[in-house]
Structure formats: C-alpha cells, structure tokens
Amino acid sequence: MIILAALMSNKRLVFIHGFLENATMWKTIVPHLSKSNYKLDFPELPGHGENSFLPEQKTAEAYCQNILDQLALNEDDRLFIIAHSMGGYLSASLAAMIPNQISALCLFHSKACADTDEKKAERRKAIEAATKNKDLYVRTMITNIFYEKNRERCRAEIEKLISEAQQLSVETIVSAQHVMIQRPDRIAAMQSRNFPLYYFLGDKDTSVSLKVVEKELEQLPGAVAHIARETGHMGHIENNREVVEFLQRIMRADT
C-alpha cells in the first residue's frame, strides 16, 4: 500500500482501484487535485499491485477487512473515499461496516447494488475464460471496457493496463470474480447513510450500466450523479479533465 502524508489531520482521502488494476491508476488524477488538507491513502485490493494477500473467504467483508488492515485507522479518522469499479462495490460494504468514519463516498464508475442474475452469469463465464486463457481474457476485457470510439486514442494506456493485469494470477482473478458475484446489496446502507454520496458515470459504460445505476439513484434521494458523455468505464483515462473537475468540486464541499 502507498501512503502519502499531507498535513497532520484526521481527514483521509482514500483512493481504491478496481478489478485488474492497482494503485498507480490514480496517477492520472491525484497530481491535479487540491488535497493539502488530507492524508492520502492508496490501498490495493487483495492479490493486486503490491498486495499479495488473498483472504481464504471470498467475500466482500473479507476483502474490506484487508483494506481496513492496510489503512490502520484511528478512532477519529474520517475517510473521503473515491473508488473505481470493484473498489466502489467494496467501498459500499466498507461504508456499511464503519459508517461513522465516512465523510463522503464517490462511486467512480461503480454502484452499491448487488449483481443481477445476468451479470452473475457473465462473471461465471469470465471465470471460465480466465481459467482457460488468462492473457486473452485480460486483453479482451480491458479493451472492451473502453468506449470503442476512444480505444485508438487511448491505445498506449490500454496496452499498459493489459501488460500490468497479465501479471496477476488466475487465482486472484477468480477470487475477485467470486467476491463480486457474492457481494451483498448495499442500497439499504446507502439509504441510511449520514454522509454525501456521489457518482461519476460514463454514458457508454458497458461494465456498470447507466440504466442500472439510474434505478439505484431513484432509491437514493440526495445522491449526486455526474454523467460523462462519450465515456466508457475508464473516465480517468477517457475523460480525465472532466473527472478532475468533478472530484475537485465534491472535495471542496467536504467540510
């Protein structure tokens, strides 16, 4: 885990990457943010990046506990969490575990609801594909999460992501997919939250369907959503400036 200390403060800005990623994904975002009043944390998901640990239990709670172990919280710490994709799924569970220590949550191309039966079936097929040919699975998946019209422009970044993800073990990939399949629905926890809830979404995101999240938002009065046009699942690469502007805006609201 990477930790960057800013001023002495109990305010912590926590960036959680997604499936097949690592903490370096935030290098396209963090340098452009005004964050001097926060301590910065970049925990990594089990089996990803520099985190070699894989919990025996393939549950969201076990993965969240590993994140908490990395953060080593003090009682008075308050977390502003910005979490991408699977990191967001886990953050919704994390917020249910420590609701009084969350100052804000931004689900970045992510959602709080559980997978639909159709999505679970897709993940089971993904497990089969990764087990059969990991490198082909990684290349196909990462390419497809970018909006097709952005792929050529983002080709260098796509190839870098593929190269990094191909270093992951099949066990890590399969374990993460099982966690996502089995993760609980966290809509009720978000309804009873005592912190601001934000969404950054892509209108061309095929991984986190805008239609699904729009239904989620109907159940969450007060949640703020920003929808980026011509953007797939990787807004920090496909639409960097708009992501930075949105994050700056919601961070200014964190008092």
Record keyword descriptors for this entry:
globular, alpha/beta, 255 residues, 10 helices, disordered N terminus, 7 strands
Quantity of strands, as a count = 7
How far is the first residue's CA from the last residue's CA? 26 Å
- Gyration radius, rounded: 17 Å
Shape: globular
Which oligomerization state do the chains in this entry correspond to?
A: single chain
Major β-sheet strand ordering: 1-3-2-4-5-6-7
Q: What structural class do helix, strand and pairing data support?
A: alpha/beta
Mean pLDDT: 95
- Percent of residues in helices comes to 40-55%
Low-pLDDT residue intervals, each spanning 5 or more residues: 2-8
Strand content: 5-15%
Order of helices and strands: EEEHEHEHHHHHEHEHH
Major pleated sheet? 7 strands, mixed
**What's the helix count?**
10
Could you please describe the fold and organization of this structure?
- With 255 residues, the chain is of the alpha/beta class.
- 42% of the residues lie in helices and 15% in strands.
- The longest helix has 16 residues, at 117-132.
- It is globular.
